[in-house]
């Protein structure tokens, strides 16, 4: 699971959960896969991403020196930051770990890079 | 669009995962025919629900991987694995998420949505329990072949149970400019579905149709009106 994907995941499908976002991420095993930097791609995706979850991902992988807590203005003009975002969002692949609902503590395991977000019948 | 390689998937995988068939290829053909529209749309997030072997979303990922994040969901863990390996085999990237429909995704994000649903008319019992984690007892009897494959085709009344649930959620799934390609069977009553979509403030057209032995298939193309 890439950290760009993490940005789109929520536990709001659980009965009673209001926001369910960002999920609490724990990484047991990850892989860094170098991919070609494409500034336009990062720039176009940014408006769809939630900065609070970008920052919480950066905290988990200890990249908070690179990624500020608050989204800076005119980010596309900052090539260095764009490259760091590219690395955070597209090069780090979580193979094993878990996601936790911030409101209920429900844990969703990540196995072989695939988060299991299925709920039980009595949870929805 | 290139048709993805599937030679890495064997009869062993197809014991648990829906094997690409005429319906799969019709959806691929519809995307291919609508590439100009898709290019103009410049999608940033594509999602296939119920990706099975992953051939459809892999073909899309190969075509749009420079500009779009491609995600796939399935309730069947074997399908999630197969989808990832199909993307790898074809040197592209698709992210698998095991979940019910798009329920784990933030709202109004998806620019291109694809679904070849379980569309066969069956009794509702056959559908029961497909949507949730197996209870400890049934998991014990093994999360078996049968259960996985039944959930790839069993559609309950009119073959519409799963599709109807998705249609109710569509407004929360599609981005403002989003488009949805949905595969249907004549028995699913496509005209009724189009009317229903109109009442939900969508526009739907029969974008492609094809007769195959024993079935008549449609692709609906759905956008916000
Ligand atoms: C007809 S198969 C299509 C597979 C593949 N997309 C194709 O076209 O070859 C339907 C797929 O939907 C999955 N599925 C069924 N119900 C689902 C649900 N509620 N949420 C997500 N996936 C589901 C099944 O496991 C199966 O892989």
From TrEMBL, chain A:
<dbReference type="GO" id="GO:0046982">
    <property type="term" value="F:protein heterodimerization activity"/>
</dbReference>
<dbReference type="GO" id="GO:0070476">
    <property type="term" value="P:rRNA (guanine-N7)-methylation"/>
</dbReference>
<dbReference type="InterPro" id="IPR005651">
    <property type="entry name" value="Trm112-like"/>
</dbReference>
<dbReference type="InterPro" id="IPR039127">
    <property type="entry name" value="Trm112"/>
</dbReference>
<keyword id="KW-0539">Nucleus</keyword>
<comment type="similarity">
    <text>Belongs to the TRM112 family.</text>
</comment>
<keyword id="KW-0963">Cytoplasm</keyword>
<dbReference type="Pfam" id="PF03966">
    <property type="entry name" value="Trm112p"/>
</dbReference>
<dbReference type="GO" id="GO:0005654">
    <property type="term" value="C:nucleoplasm"/>
</dbReference>
<protein>
    <recommendedName>
        <fullName>Multifunctional methyltransferase subunit TRM112-like protein</fullName>
    </recommendedName>
</protein>
<dbReference type="GO" id="GO:0048471">
    <property type="term" value="C:perinuclear region of cytoplasm"/>
</dbReference>
<dbReference type="GO" id="GO:0030488">
    <property type="term" value="P:tRNA methylation"/>
</dbReference>
UniProtKB/TrEMBL annotation, chain B:
<dbReference type="InterPro" id="IPR007848">
    <property type="entry name" value="Small_mtfrase_dom"/>
</dbReference>
<dbReference type="Pfam" id="PF05175">
    <property type="entry name" value="MTS"/>
</dbReference>
<feature type="domain" description="Methyltransferase small">
    <location>
        <begin position="34"/>
        <end position="136"/>
    </location>
</feature>
<comment type="function">
    <text>Methyltransferase that can methylate proteins and, to a lower extent, arsenic. Catalytic subunit of a heterodimer with TRMT112, which monomethylates 'Lys-12' of histone H4 (H4K12me1), a modification present at the promoters of numerous genes encoding cell cycle regulators. Catalytic subunit of a heterodimer with TRMT112, which catalyzes N5-methylation of Glu residue of proteins with a Gly-Gln-Xaa-Xaa-Xaa-Arg motif. Methylates ETF1 on 'Gln-185'; ETF1 needs to be complexed to ERF3 in its GTP-bound form to be efficiently methylated.</text>
</comment>
<dbReference type="InterPro" id="IPR052190">
    <property type="entry name" value="Euk-Arch_PrmC-MTase"/>
</dbReference>
<dbReference type="GO" id="GO:0003676">
    <property type="term" value="F:nucleic acid binding"/>
</dbReference>
<keyword id="KW-0489">Methyltransferase</keyword>
<dbReference type="GO" id="GO:0036009">
    <property type="term" value="F:protein-glutamine N-methyltransferase activity"/>
</dbReference>
<dbReference type="InterPro" id="IPR002052">
    <property type="entry name" value="DNA_methylase_N6_adenine_CS"/>
</dbReference>
<dbReference type="InterPro" id="IPR029063">
    <property type="entry name" value="SAM-dependent_MTases_sf"/>
</dbReference>
<dbReference type="GO" id="GO:0035657">
    <property type="term" value="C:eRF1 methyltransferase complex"/>
</dbReference>
<keyword id="KW-0808">Transferase</keyword>
<keyword id="KW-0539">Nucleus</keyword>
<dbReference type="InterPro" id="IPR004557">
    <property type="entry name" value="PrmC-related"/>
</dbReference>
<dbReference type="GO" id="GO:0032259">
    <property type="term" value="P:methylation"/>
</dbReference>
<comment type="subunit">
    <text>Heterodimer; heterodimerization with TRMT112 is required for S-adenosyl-L-methionine-binding.</text>
</comment>
<comment type="similarity">
    <text>Belongs to the eukaryotic/archaeal PrmC-related family.</text>
</comment>
<dbReference type="GO" id="GO:0005634">
    <property type="term" value="C:nucleus"/>
</dbReference>
<keyword id="KW-0949">S-adenosyl-L-methionine</keyword>
<protein>
    <recommendedName>
        <fullName>Methyltransferase HEMK2</fullName>
    </recommendedName>
</protein>
């Amino acid at each position: 699971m890439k950290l760009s994907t993490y940005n789109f995941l929520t536990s709001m499908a659980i009965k009673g959960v209001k926001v369910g976002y960002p999920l609490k991420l724990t990484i047991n095993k990850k892989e860094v896969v170098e991919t070609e930097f494409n500034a336009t791609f990062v720039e176009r995706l940014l408006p769809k991403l939630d900065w609070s979850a970008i920052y919480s991902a950066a905290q988990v992988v200890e990249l908070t020196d690179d990624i500020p807590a608050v989204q800076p203005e005119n980010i596309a003009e900052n090539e260095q930051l764009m490259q760091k975002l590219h690395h955070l969002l597209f090069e780090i692949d979580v193979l094993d770990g878990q996601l936790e609902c911030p409101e209920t503590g429900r844990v969703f395991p990540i196995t072989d890079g695939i988060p299991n977000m299925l709920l039980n019948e009595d949870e929805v | 669009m290139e048709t993805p390689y599937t030679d890495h998937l064997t009869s062993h995988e197809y014991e648990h995962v829906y094997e690409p068939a005429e319906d799969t290829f019709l959806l691929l053909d519809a995307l291919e025919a609508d590439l100009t529209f898709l290019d103009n749309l410049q999608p940033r997030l594509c999602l296939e629900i119920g990706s099975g072997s992953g051939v459809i979303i892999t073909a899309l990922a190969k075509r749009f991987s420079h500009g779009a994040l491609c995600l796939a969901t399935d309730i069947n863990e074997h399908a999630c694995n197969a989808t990832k390996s199909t993307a790898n085999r074809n040197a592209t990237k698709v992210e698998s998420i095991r979940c019910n429909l798009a329920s784990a995704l933030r709202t109004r994000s998806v620019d291109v949505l694809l679904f070849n649903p379980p569309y066969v008319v069956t009794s509702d019992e056959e559908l029961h329990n497909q949507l949730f984690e197996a209870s400890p007892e049934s998991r014990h009897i093994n999360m078996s072949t049968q259960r996985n494959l039944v959930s790839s085709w069993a559609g309950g009344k009119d073959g519409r149970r799963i599709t109807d649930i998705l249609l109710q959620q569509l407004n929360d799934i599609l981005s403002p400019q989003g488009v949805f390609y949905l595969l249907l069977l004549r028995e699913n009553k496509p005209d009724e579905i189009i009317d229903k979509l109109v009442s939900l403030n969508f526009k739907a057209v029969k974008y492609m149709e094809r007769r195959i032995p024993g079935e008549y298939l449609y692709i609906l193309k759905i956008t916000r009106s």
